[in-house]
Amino acid sequence: MKQPAKILIVDDDQDILVAGKLLLKRHYSQVDICNRPEQLPTLLADCEFDLILLDMNFGPGESSGEQGFYWLSQILKLRPDSIVILITAHGGIDIAVEAIKQGATDFIAKPWHNEKVLATISTALELHKSRQETKSLRAANQALVQASTASAQHIIGNSSAMQQVHELVNRAAPTDANVLILGENGTGKELIAKELHLKSARAQQVFLSVDLGAITETLFESELFGHKKGAFTGAQQDRVGKIKAADGGTLFLDEIGNLPLHLQAKLLTVLAQRKVTPVGANQEEAFDVRIIAATNVDKHALLDEEKFRQDLLFRLNTVEITLPPLRERKEDIAAIAQHYVDIYGKKYQKSPLTLADNAVEALTHYHWPGNVRALRHAVERAVIMTDNQALSADDFQLKNTDVSVSAPASSSQVQPTITAPENDSGELNLEIIEKQTISRALKQHKYNISHAAKALGLTRAALYRRMEKHGL
Ligand SMILES: Nc1ncnc2c1ncn2[C@@H]1O[C@H](COP(=O)(O)OP(=O)(O)OP(=O)(O)O)[C@@H](O)[C@H]1O
């Protein structure tokens, strides 16, 4: 079967043109010929050739290659991505080497051997294809970077704790130092990681995140380091790992504290050497990536060398930022709640909504085990359900309760009533049972999402989706 490729042969020797066309027509879909290089600008304007075979000398007795250099430069000026293979006279190797320095891809010496010509063209076309792919990937990447910069979320809260966080972010962001962000689930670790990226010199490059809590051990290497086609069963094509995909930008390693020790060792080696070898490859690839890591595991556990490699910790925590739980920055709650009231009010097309004093009080006194994420969901639910202009405490369906979570409970703490009952009520409705089970898992694991998700046999993303669905 013929390969879809447009090839142009430029030579003043009619025999070469005819022989070349005859040979290449059998293998490629379009082969055009031209015996006068002056026609090149018109031809290039009309057609985007995948490959051009260009003679170095035009006219009898010519051997300096001067015209070849001239037309090579014209082609590259008009179409900078062109793949040009030069046709040189036997013995014109020095000229060909010089032409490659000036942008030609390869050369073929006359008289040519058909197999050699076909092999050279096939390799050059592969190169062309991968250049085109790189170009469109780069364009897609740029569009992604612009879209994510435009949709950057605001970090709300001016408590003294958050002011210290901002101070650290502003100092660390431009330095390219690795940063470790600590904090309970939902405190805004990913938000801070993105802020560090956006305030760094890498802001115009990609920000990628990988959830190490959700990744299976077998997928770890393939996800981070990439793999080659055929490296293992199911590897049907080459895959670029996240580390290489983030080249030039920032890689956010979420839930680093959940990584088993032997995978920590693999990650450390790659980060220390700044080189990665995709599974099934035999060559290392260098990368330039800023690493920001985060975990909800507390500092004491990270300092336990039986659970976490201290040399990896040392590499990750050049700068350490700790995000306080929301209950320790209660003064931020009203502002964050109002921020999401505005956002969801617009989203659900409500007339401008406010928070009544009793709502602010109830929200402020709640201990928020799910932190800002839970507050955000509570606001969204209230906005959807309310008919009021000013959201009241009732709209949040809050009631006083004692809650057994990591935070010390007090009598003024409140919890949304829709939280599932602790006991199995003999309920047979699947939706309700799902909600009860999730609720119980969350409490059992003290709102550690990774652990609760693992216990439920779900990914973290799937658990978050269900928590949102049930308003948990
Ligand atoms: N200060 C803040 N202002 C506004 N929104 C915030 C703030 N902090 C967190 N959020 C919101 O709360 C949600 C959770 O934030 P994020 O995912 O950054 O938390 P996290 O600590 O990385 O969570 P996890 O540990 O579960 O991965 C997001 O929707 C985020 O936009």
Overall shape: it is: elongated
The CATH superfamily of the largest domain is known as: P-loop containing nucleotide triphosphate hydrolases
Task: Figure out the total of helices.
Answer: 18
For the record, the CATH class of the largest domain is Alpha Beta
Task: Provide the CATH architecture of the largest domain.
Answer: 3-Layer(aba) Sandwich
Bound molecules: adenosine-5'-triphosphate
Distance between the termini: 58 Å
Instruction: Name the beta content range.
Output: 15-25%
What is the third-level CATH name, the topology of the largest domain?
Rossmann fold
Q: pLDDT average, as an integer?
A: 87
Total domains, how many?
Answer: 4
Unreliable residue stretches:
400-424
Radius of gyration: 31 Å
Share of helical residues: 40-55%
Q: Widest sheet: strand order?
A: 2-1-3-4-5
Major pleated sheet? 5 strands, parallel
Question: Based on DSSP secondary structure assignment, what is the total number of beta strands?
Answer: 18
Structural class: alpha/beta
Question: Describe it for me?
Answer:
This protein is α/β, with parallel strands linked by helices and 472 residues long. The chain folds into four domains: 129 residues, Response regulator (Rossmann fold, 3-Layer(aba) Sandwich), CATH 3.40.50; 149 residues, 3-Layer(aba) Sandwich (Rossmann fold), CATH 3.40.50; 92 residues, Orthogonal Bundle (Helicase, Ruva Protein, domain 3); 54 residues, Homeodomain-like (Arc Repressor Mutant, subunit A). Helix 2 packs parallel to helix 3 and helix 17 packs across helix 18. Helix content is 45%, strand content 15%. It is built from 18 helices and 18 strands. The strands form six sheets. The protein has a five-stranded parallel beta sheet with strand order 2-1-3-4-5, sandwiched between helices. A five-stranded parallel beta sheet has the order 7-10-13-6-14. Strands 8-9 form a two-stranded antiparallel sheet. Bound molecules: adenosine-5'-triphosphate. Adenosine-5'-triphosphate binds next to helix 7 and helix 15. Keywords: ATP-binding, Nucleotide-binding, Phosphoprotein, Transcription, Transcription regulation. This is Sigma-54-dependent Fis family transcriptional regulator. InterPro entries: AAA+_ATPase, AAA_lid_NorR, CheY-like_superfamily, Homeodomain-like_sf, HTH_Fis, P-loop_NTPase, Sig_transdc_resp-reg_receiver, Sigma_54_int. GO terms for molecular function: ATP binding; sequence-specific DNA binding.
